[in-house]
Design goal:
The complex is a heterodimer.
Chain A (H helix, E strand, L loop, with lengths): L6 H19 L3 H5 L8 H16 L1 H8 L9 H16 L4 H14 L6 H13 L9 H4 L4 H11 L3 H7 L6 E5 L6 H10 L4 E3 L6 E4 L16 E3 L2 H10 L6 E4 L6 H9 L3 E6 L2 H14 L4 E4 L5 H4 L5 E7 L14 H4 L2 H19 L2 E11 L8 H10 L3 E4 L7 E2 L4 E3 L9 E8 L3
Chain B lengths: L25 H16 L4 E3 L9 E4 L9 E21 L2 E19 L5 E7 H14 L10 H21 L1
Classes of the chains: A alpha/beta, B alpha+beta.
Chain lengths: 433, 170
């Protein structure tokens, strides 16, 4: 009798499919994992996610380990499965024989049963003698494309290696307590009662960090809006806005609505939330409903003022600009392989255009908070510094804070610092008023 | 030790009905070692003599993940069974095919080990399934006999095609 194609094989096969969707079809990992079968048991689902995340984090290194063992490139899905196999042997606490067996079994799941001998041979050969890779090449060592490894090294100097390595760590789960519904201490107790350990985030007044990530269904009161999932770095935006009741506020790139909600939890403001993406703005509306918050929502490109602006000036603007996402690679390892070098300049152009357009909607004396989850200067300090230099009534408000490090303009946070995602913030004030 | 060739459906030798093992000697022991090696290499959890072209009534099994539970069954017979269930099953003689079949979840069987010493053993889940699968082999049966004729023909065509392709490439 053959070895049964067990659940372990199914997880491996599904992980290989998700990886191939990212690498070969350019889809996001979130989108690829959203199509996992509904009947997949929770344990297999979490194993599949772990395999997909881990293999994508390590993709370049694993690829380099596979290369000497194959004569010609295998078909994409088979290659993804081989990498999943190597990842387990390299990095997971799965007994090697179980990893090999389940991965070989996955060939049948993927209707590539003819390749089972090849998969078996390659994984067993790796088990016998894993190749050693050169460790003096940052892109290979940390598994990043060269252009990105080089850009990070150039921007972060001696911190570069640490920043690249931090992008491969698993991220903690941070929460934001809805202060309109409860207090941080009360919610900490609620978590404790549910046997979930958490600690306050020192630098975020309404933030918590969970000892172990859980699904939102397991979070007490999540559906009722007691709490949201949001990285601590993103929670800093609300402080920088210096909100007061009655202010007219714009959130220019608002979806999925975590930062918008945070602003509304903090003060009674008149807030307009814009987003260019209709489906993402639908998520935004769901977030508002869950948290019991209200604001105006509109689908529009914030840079096209004629499409949406009623000529009423804003006291505060949050520009959480679209960016490369290089600061959140630890949560989205697919970013490493989906971005191209040219995307950075394109993002910077868009960021600059948004700043310029929105500036005219800001009241004299008002403040604009510029944020990105990028760790590259080209999307951070460079954009804002150039804008301030070329705009008569734009003044930098120097951020005095215990997080991050000062940049030529603004502050940036290295991924992993305080447990935070990599982030960039600048505060700009409009003169007069 | 050696890895033996596993016969594939529809090889007529898979339909042989085996005869009881009577000679428990070094040659038998060595053949059993080869069967284990062949089974582990496949990889399988059970292998019957007919699958490697032998007609002695014996099979080997190991349902563990780490080769830690090898079982030799010479002249096996099932004593009792209970609780039929439908499970996925595959056979080393029907490569790359799995199907749903009905098997008993628990059973007890009697057999002799490689030295001819009789023993009895209870089995459940995968091991019970495997005992039933291997016993069928020893009477010339295959699990696909339980499937519809249409399905069996489809498998036969698929295997014939795969065999032709293997021949062309070799």
């Amino acid at each position: 009798m053959s070895k049964p194609a067990d659940a372990g094989s199914r997880s491996r096969a599904l992980a290989a499919r998700a990886i191939s969707a990212v690498i070969d079809e350019g889809r996001s990992l979130d989108a690829a994992l959203a199509t996992l079968p509904a009947d997949l048991p929770a344990a297999d689902r979490s194993l599949c996610r772990m395999l997909a995340y881990g293999t994508l984090r390590d993709h370049r290194r694993l690829d380099a380990m596979l290369a000497p063992r194959i004569q010609r490139p295998p078909q994409p899905l088979l290659k993804a499965l081989l990498l999943v196999g190597l990842f387990q042997l390299e990095a997971m606490r799965v007994p090697p024989h179980a990893a090999v067996h389940a991965t070989v079994g996955a060939t049948v799941e993927l209707k590539m049963g003819k390749a089972r001998g090849m998969v078996n041979a390659i994984l067993r050969a790796h088990q016998r003698s894993a190749p050693t890779l050169a460790d003096d090449h940052p892109g290979l060592l940390h598994s990043y494309p060269d252009w990105l490894a080089d850009a990070v090294q150039a921007d972060w100097a001696e911190q570069g290696d640490g920043v690249l390595a931090a992008g491969n760590q698993r991220a903690p789960m941070h929460l934001r307590v809805n202060l309109r519904r409860t207090t941080r201490d009360a919610y900490l107790q609620t978590l404790l009662d549910a046997d979930l350990r958490a600690d306050p985030l020192a630098l975020c007044v309404d933030g918590l960090t969970l000892a172990e990530p859980v699904s939102t269904e397991q979070l007490p009161g999540f559906a009722n809006g007691l709490v949201s999932v949001q990285d601590g770095a993103a929670q800093l935006a609300a402080d920088l806005m210096k909100l007061a009741d009655g202010q007219r506020v714009l959130d220019a790139c608002a979806a999925p609505g975590n930062k918008t909600a945070h602003l509304l939890e903090r003060a009674d403001i008149d807030l307009l939330a814009l987003d260019i993406d209709e489906s993402r703005l639908a998520t935004h509306a769901a977030t508002m409903k869950r948290l019991g918050l209200a604001c105006h929502e509109r689908i529009a490109d914030a840079a096209q003022l004629d499409d949406w602006w009623d000529k009423q000036l804003f006291d505060r603007i949050l520009l959480d600009a679209p960016c490369s996402g290089t600061g959140v690679i630890r949560r989205h390892p697919d970013i490493k392989w989906l971005r191209r070098a040219s995307d950075i300049a394109q993002a910077a152009t868009r960021q600059r255009a948004l700043l310029e357009s929105l500036w005219t909607t800001l009241a004299p004396g008002g403040r604009l908070v510029y944020a990105t989850c990028s760790i590259l200067r080209a999307e951070g300090s460079d954009v804002v510094a150039e804008f301030i230099a070329q705009t008569d009534d734009a003044r930098e408000v120097v951020i005095a804070a215990d997080w991050g490090a000062p940049e030529p303009v603004g502050r940036r946070i290295a991924p992993g610092e305080q447990g935070f995602d990599g982030f960039y913030y600048a505060v700009i004030k409009r003169a007069g008023g | 030790m050696a890895i033996l060739e596993i016969l594939h459906f529809p090889d007529p030798r898979l339909r042989e009905i085996t005869t009881p093992v009577t000679q428990f000697d070094a040659a038998l022991s060595s053949f059993i070692d080869d069967m284990f090696e062949t089974m582990y290499d496949a990889p399988g959890v059970g292998l019957a003599s007919t699958q490697v072209g032998d007609t002695r009534r014996l099979a080997v099994m190991d349902c563990s993940d780490d080769k830690s539970q090898p079982i030799v069954m010479c002249n096996p017979r099932i004593l009792w069974t209970e609780e039929a269930e439908t499970v996925d099953e595959g056979c080393l003689s029907v490569p790359d095919h799995y199907d749903r079949v009905t098997r008993y979840r628990r059973l007890r069987f009697a057999a002799e080990d490689r030295d001819g010493t009789p023993y009895e053993m209870g089995a459940e889940d995968l091991l019970a399934q495997c005992v039933q699968h291997e016993l069928a082999h020893l009477d010339g049966g295959l699990y696909i006999d339980k499937l519809s004729r249409l399905k069996r023909q489809r498998i036969r065509r698929k295997l014939a095609k795969a065999a032709r392709r293997a021949e062309e490439t070799s």
